[in-house]
Write a structure and sequence with these properties.
alpha/beta; Rossmann fold; eight-stranded mixed sheet
Length: about 325
């Protein structure tokens, strides 16, 4: 989506990913009708359109709360019970590095309308429709927990996660938390110009840590960031514990209109993504046009298959048969 302009105009963000991949067939081990071959390395992020074709959404299982203890000695207090709930977040607001964002081609808060901004407006509508009921505003299962993933590094996953978070933060009644869950190679704070510190992994390791104190408020009023936190060798094992869901639920305990975006390691590069997929309601799988192979996509989808809804975000498209040119309609004078 960023990078040098192609000779032809950049296509719509929603160039149907199904034109390149049949994700439902991949999940059913049926040969898809089209294949995009893998290509050599290309700069990421790349100028693109993205597409998201939803799979049939399975029912989301709801956990049944344990029955209250009535008779007998009091049970031992679990480690999970020691973690306090997240209060309304407070503390200083940190300025986001807008010059860095502009250099990377990322949507700027209160910036001019751009093609990238228009494309992610379409993407976020799909995400919001799967997260909240349009009539009541209530969450749909765990749809407000969104995993942004890719098969391999260098396919624009983190770039897409930041753009999606920025676009969602522009909503009038939305609260957005962007979580760095790439514990091995965290980079969200660096890209946004925010300080590193305790974060998501610290809350998984230490049951007494109030995770709300690690959340960084930004000068974008509805956007906050949770750093990855400490580096541990057994990060997958901590993420696989029963504590993960409780920590995640505390992130939305005080605000029913909060949506949490997780930027995780690529599915085929680390096992963390498959564990996170068990706890989220939807996944945005970034697919790099002319680079992500059919085999890689199949493997990645199988690994995160426990997520009830997986959509493709096609990144790096250089041509649109429909001739869409998002952003050009408004012009420079838009406000």
């Amino acid at each position: 989506m960023t990078g040098p302009s192609a000779e032809r105009k950049s296509p719509s963000l929603l160039e149907r990913a199904a034109d390149h991949f049949d994700l439902a067939a991949a999940l059913q081990s049926v040969t898809p009708h089209a294949v995009v071959p893998g290509a050599g390395a290309a700069p990421a992020p790349a100028e693109s359109d993205a597409a998201a074709d939803p799979l049939p959404e399975p029912a989301v299982a709801k956990a049944t709360p344990p029955a209250p203890h009535i008779d007998g000695p009091a049970p031992l207090q679990s480690a999970e019970a020691l973690t306090p709930p997240v209060p309304v977040w407070s503390g200083m607001r940190h300025a986001i590095d807008r010059d860095r964002l502009e250099a990377l081609g990322i949507i700027l808060p209160d910036g001019e309308i751009t093609g990238t901004g228009e494309e992610f407006r379409i993407v976020k509508r799909r995400v919001l429709a799967a997260a909240f009921d349009s009539e009541t505003g209530a969450t749909k299962g765990r749809g407000n927990f969104v995993l942004v993933n890719s098969a391999h590094p260098g396919e624009g996953k983190t770039w897409c996660a930041i753009n999606l978070a920025m676009s969602l933060a522009a909503e009038q009644d939305m609260d957005v938390l962007l979580v760095d869950a790439d514990f091995g190679k965290p980079e969200l704070c660096e890209l946004l110009g925010l300080p590193e510190g305790p974060g998501f992994m610290d809350a998984l390791v230490d049951p007494q840590m109030p995770i709300g104190q690690s959340i960084l408020r930004t000068d974008v009023p509805s956007l906050s960031v949770l750093p990855a936190g400490r580096h541990v060798r057994n990060d997958t094992e901590f993420l696989a514990s029963g504590r993960t869901r409780q920590v995640m639920d505390r992130l939305v305990a005080d605000n029913a209109r909060r949506i949490v975006i997780f930027d995780s390691p690529p599915a085929l590069a680390a096992s963390l993504a498959s564990e996170l997929a068990r706890h989220v309601g939807q996944t945005v799988m970034v697919v790099r046009a002319d680079r992500t192979s059919e085999a890689a996509l199949r493997d990645a989808v199988n690994l995160i298959g426990q997520c009830p809804l997986i959509r493709l975000l096609l990144n790096g498209v250089k041509f649109s048969s429909s001739g869409r040119q998002f952003g050009t309609y408004y012009g420079k004078a838009a406000s």
